[in-house]
Each structure stands twice: as structure tokens, then as C-alpha cells.
Amino acid sequence: MKASIGRLAFLAALLAGALVPATAGAQTWPARPVKLVVGFAAGGNTDAIARIAADRLGAALGQAFLVENRVGASGAIAAEAVAKSPPDGYTFFVGATPNILVVPRVNKVNYDGQKDFIPVAIIATNPFVLAIHPSIPAKTLREFVDYAKTRPGQLNFGSGGAGTVAHLSGALLLSRAGIRVAHIPYKGGAPAVADLIGGQIQMYFGNASELIPHIRAGKATVLGVSSEKRARELPEVPSIAETYPGFHTHTWNGLFAPVGTPRAIVERTAQEVARMVTDPVVVERLHKIGTDPSGIALEKFAELIAKEVPMWVEAVKAAGIGPAK
Questions:
Q1: pLDDT tens track for 126-151
Q2: 5 domain residue, yes or no
Q3: pTM here?
Q4: How far is CA 36 from CA 74, 78, 81, 102, 297, in A?
Q5: Fewer CB within 10 Å: N-end or C-end of the chain?
Q6: Helices assigned H by DSSP within 88-244
Q7: Are residue 120 and residue 159 in the same domain, yes or no?
Q8: How far apart, in whole angstroms, are the C-alpha atoms of residue 54 and residue 35?
Q9: Rounded CA gap, 194 and 113, in Å?
Q10: Do 216 and 149 reside in the same domain of the chain?
Q11: Domain that holds residue 63
């Protein structure tokens, strides 16, 4: 009996000893610089959000947070690199909606957006603005739909590229409205906006920050926003859901950790993001790039991703660009 008790005590001590390094590691993290990997070039929204986060997380946690841009394959190269990196809390992916929910459904990639990452926290979100060329005699979404129905296939809508969230938002709207408008993909939003202003395309879904100056100058007519509620930047513009109930698309940008990252590190990072997005200075910086602070984290972030899957499957099918799964 004494031998059995002694053996149990030995095993308990051994187990406790095995757990100490993991706990201690989480308590001392970060002990060296942390990488925030971005799948897009410097200057875009995701990159700007990553740099805002890097500044504040570095200040809060006493270590440098370094942004690393690994551009290519619509963010898939960066996502794969992070998915395969050591889950030690020193590499995070600054992921956006397309990296996690769209690209793996339209292209062959070497990562699973939902299985290979832990959703840590959303930093910011932004809806899309639907604009048309002023030559179209429509001031409301319903008027534009009626106009397009009498001209099937005669109108064009542009996006920053096939498979982008803006492209899929447009395809989803066209499908639900029952109209045919040809899609013209561009290499980025800037040339698409230029052609909208020039009249080469008649419809465009884009970020508020890139369209508002042209809307205010009378060079584009705004018809709606893709968020569930009206957007902060355009309170007078109805949401598309006011015409088509249930329509809702947006982009979120947030932090993801490789599966296996210690829970204590993930929770600490999520807590710091929650603090960060309530700071007035950070809020102002996020608003300047047309985004809204969020802070949704951990299980609630994972629930949001799961909830959005059916919508993006529907959008991929509507766009006809890949085998939705």
C-alpha cells in the first residue's frame, strides 16, 4: 500500500514538473520580438491595421512586434507560413475575411482557414459601399435594379480582383436581386475606381475611404452599404439590407495564432487587443483608414467565422469562380 502511495506521489510530482515549463513560458512571454505576418503589400488596410496593432501591442507587452509582409496568392503564402510556424506565441497571422473564408474555397491552398488557426481577436471591420456612375438614372438601389433588369448583360461592375470580398459581395447582391451585370476584375481597387469615374464600368463595391471623396464630388452615386446597419461614415445612406433583408457582407481583420499556441498567450493577446481598440488614439487611427474597431475575441470570433461560412459559400457559387465547399 505504501509503495502504491509512493508511486502515485512520484507520478504527481513528475506531471507537475512537466507542466511547469509551459506555465512559466506563458508567464514570461514575450521574451523576444513577435512577428505579425501580413499577406498583402504595405499601404493597404490590412497592413495599416497590422502596424497599428504592432505599435500598441509592443508598447503594452514590452517587446517589439514586427510586421512582415509576405505577399502572394491572395494572402495564401502568408497564411501557410504562419500555419506551419512553431506554435510558441512568436508568430501571428494578421488575417482578413478572404484569407480564412474565401481563398481556401476558390483556390488550392496548403492550409485550412478554420482548422489550422486559433482566432485570437478581431481588430477592425469595414463594410463595402455600393456606387454607380452618375450617368445611370438611379438614386436608390431599387431603381438601379429595375434599370439593370431592362438591360441584361449590358452593364459592367468592377472589383479589385476575382475572388475578392468586394467581388463576391457584388455577385451575391446580383444573385439576390436577379439581375445580370458583367464582372470586370482589376488588379486592385484604384484602377477600378478610376474606370467607374470614367464611365467604363457602371457599378463598383469598394471601401468607404476610396469612394467617399468621389461621392462628395458628384463623380459617383452611392446606393447602399453592405453592413447590417448604416455606416458611421455615411449615416444618410441606407444599408442594402433595408432593400434585401438578410444581406450583409464585410471584411474583418484580426489576429490568428497557429493551432497549438499556449492558451495563456492567446488569452493575453486577446485582452491586449480589447484594451487597444478602446483607446481614443487607436480608434481615431482606425477611423482614418475607414475601419471600425472591434475587439471580438476567442470563442465569439470563432462563432462569427462559423456563422459567415454559408454566406460566402453562396457568394462563391453566385460568382462562379470555384468549387464552394
A1: 999 999 999 999 999 999 999 999 99
A2: no
A3: 0.85
A4: 17, 10, 11, 21, 17
A5: N
A6: 97, 103-106, 141-149, 165-177, 189-198, 208-216
A7: no
A8: 9
A9: 33
A10: yes
A11: 31-126+250-319
